[in-house]
Amino acid sequence: MEDGWRHTADRERGGRRPTGAPRLRVVRHDGRVDTQGYSFDNASDQATAHHDALAGLLDGPTRAALTELGELTGRRCLEVAAGAGSIALWLAGRAAEVVATDIAPQHIPARPGLVVRREDIVTDQPPGTFDLVHARLVLGHLPRREEALRRMVAALRPGGALLIGEFAHPPADFVADAPDAATADLLIRYLAAHVATLTARGLDTGWARRAPAVFVDAGLTDVRSGTTADQWRGGDPGCRLLRAGIPQLRAALLTHGVTDADLTATMAALDDPRVVVNGFPFVQISGRAPANPA
């Protein structure tokens, strides 16, 4: 192991790696962190709950879409904005090498075949070329999303595949069931504040629907998209994802028509199994680099 490589969390604490703890291969970079437009912080005390909910909600459809793109054995893969690394770890169990990048990669555990880099897709070209590039719930938040996508396309080997996943705009009939009218109204008002907050920070809820055309414009072929839209019951991963976001967004939410008491009540409602909401549509778009580029 090269001298100076240390688990990111240890490095940021200035501490030493605990005796017997696995080393995480974090490649040094210049330390730039650009969080413009992105609202959820890996350093938040809600980060673990946020990542766990995302994995529970989206890893199934993500793995299915990745599997449809072909055999992973012997392949080199890139996971952009890897978060806690659930998909990067899944890929690492199948591919020859996986590179996981994030602006704050401290939650990604060690595994053979997995290289972790502190990178920002807004400013950094991915390292090398790849047979598969995947990014989930990141481009829609970024101010220069099309530029970031083109960086990913440029990292594809001939015939390589790009897959992104994004939430589309929440459904108008958000509340499917609630214990009473007051709870339904609360959830509707919370959703409006949630969307307004993220939109003000740069989220483009129409990006998922426009992305296929951008794939084509970027030179990708065999462009496809598919949508998963499920109901989320209180306490299930979708509602836990919304709940984990409230403490992180609280100050901004309060400027969009909800009170602190509303937010506390919303968190309780999202834990209530009597609550059922129509979840955000999850759109996955894939395309391939030409096998024989001109």
TrEMBL record:
<dbReference type="InterPro" id="IPR029063">
    <property type="entry name" value="SAM-dependent_MTases_sf"/>
</dbReference>
<keyword id="KW-0808">Transferase</keyword>
<feature type="compositionally biased region" description="Basic and acidic residues">
    <location>
        <begin position="1"/>
        <end position="15"/>
    </location>
</feature>
<feature type="region of interest" description="Disordered">
    <location>
        <begin position="1"/>
        <end position="23"/>
    </location>
</feature>
<dbReference type="GO" id="GO:0016740">
    <property type="term" value="F:transferase activity"/>
</dbReference>
<dbReference type="Pfam" id="PF13489">
    <property type="entry name" value="Methyltransf_23"/>
</dbReference>
<protein>
    <recommendedName>
        <fullName>SAM-dependent methyltransferase</fullName>
    </recommendedName>
</protein>
